[in-house]
Amino acid sequence: MTVAALLGLALPATAAHADYTFYRTSPHVGACWNKVTAYGGVYQVTNNLLNGTSSTQTVRVEVHRPGVGLQSSQTYSAAAGVWKAGAVANVSIYYNDAYRVYLNGAKILDLAAVGFPYYMMNCQTVESPSVKIRQAISYGMAKLDSLYVGCAAGTYRMGTVAPTTLYHDGTTCGQSRVYKQPAGTTGYDCSGLIYKMFQHAGVYFPWSSSAAMKSGVPKLADKSQIRVGDLLVKNGHVAMYLGDGNGDGIPSVLEATPKWQNPDGSWTGVVISDARPYLNSSLYTAHRVSGT
Question: pLDDT tens digits for 204-233?
Answer without folding.
Answer: 999 999 999 999 999 999 999 999 999 999
